[in-house]
Design goal:
about 290 residues; alpha+beta; CBS-domain; Uridine Diphospho-n-acetylenolpyruvylglucosamine Reductase, domain 3; 3 domains
Length: about 290
């Protein structure tokens, strides 16, 4: 009989090969069991890491795995189906939280397939019907819920996404079943995860910069200066975009600041985070302005 990594480990325990007389094993002892099983060749190195992750998941809370509030891509309920589909295509998400007045009032989840089906079957609905007319119920969970309990609930009730609520009833973030599974198997690599150049000049007035580039390095590279107010509370170019736009940047999001036009480019990874930003000079640098 062929066992999975966890199955092999449990089979080894049940056969009395390691720690046979301790039915009330604690997490620390389970970690020791894994190491002993690995040293005896019962599990491979990659399997060992996965089993460790499963054990640790039992003590992991939802707030440790969730997508934080500041990184949620959302849409207002009064937007049209066309606007909803456009956001989905640009962001890469197939399920998007729908809000009423603000992000603390999530009224449901919009599924791209629902919006697309309605638009396809009734073309006129694309511009006259709102996203709020085609919602699926949202699931709300407390941020201190154990991740293992949530995983079981998601599997049992076939829930893909849940809105995480803080102690005051506000939206703290969201979590998907993939967020929990990724904690077990490790982060899913993306084809663009290779090392990239932080600043790539495409011409005299155009540069492509990494979204994770620090704002001070951005200022040095582009020979510009951002106001203290704009930079307050942010570290990266991506964070700067999010702060000044008032929402998570998606491909095509633009912003003009300090003589430069910034355009969010390609998303990467399972969470579709922006990886690069196109910077185009729209005003001459200060020294050129003074010389004219």
């Amino acid at each position: 009989m062929k066992f999975s990594p966890i199955g092999k480990f449990l089979h080894a325990i049940s056969r009395g090969k390691i720690f046979p007389n301790n039915p009330n094993t604690k997490d620390e002892e389970l970690h020791d069991l894994v190491e002993q099983a690995s040293s005896r060749g019962l599990v491979e190195d990659s399997e060992r890491e996965m089993i460790h992750s499963v054990i640790d998941l039992g003590e992991t809370l939802v707030r440790e795995l969730m997508v934080p509030r500041t990184e949620i891509v959302w849409i207002e309920g009064d937007k049209t189906l066309r606007q909803g589909l456009s956001l989905a295509l640009r962001s890469g998400f197939t399920r998007i939280p729908v809000i009423d007045e603000n992000l603390d009032n999530v009224i449901g989840i919009a599924y791209v397939k629902d919006l697309a089906r309605r638009s396809h079957e009734h073309h006129e609905a694309e511009n006259v019907e709102s996203v709020s007319q085609h919602l699926r119920p949202a699931t709300f969970i407390p941020e201190n819920k154990p991740a293992t309990e949530l995983l079981k609930e998601m599997q049992r009730n076939q829930i893909h996404m849940a809105i995480v609520i803080d102690e005051y009833g506000g939206t703290a973030g969201l979590i998907t079943i993939e967020d929990i599974l990724e904690e077990i198997v490790g982060e899913i690599a993306d084809e663009y995860d290779d090392e990239q150049v932080e600043v790539e000049w495409l011409g005299d007035t155009t540069a492509r910069v990494l979204a994770r580039l620090h704002v001070e390095d951005f200022e040095d590279a582009l020979k510009t200066e951002l106001s203290d107010e704009d930079k307050e509370g942010v570290d990266s170019v991506g964070g700067l975009l999010a702060k000044l736009l008032g929402r998570v940047p998606i491909p095509g999001s633009t912003l003009e600041i300090a003589g430069w036009k910034l355009t969010a480019e390609r998303p990467a990874g399972r969470r579709h985070r922006i990886t690069t930003v196109l910077a185009e000079r729209i005003a001459p640098p200060p020294e050129e302005s003074l010389s004219e």
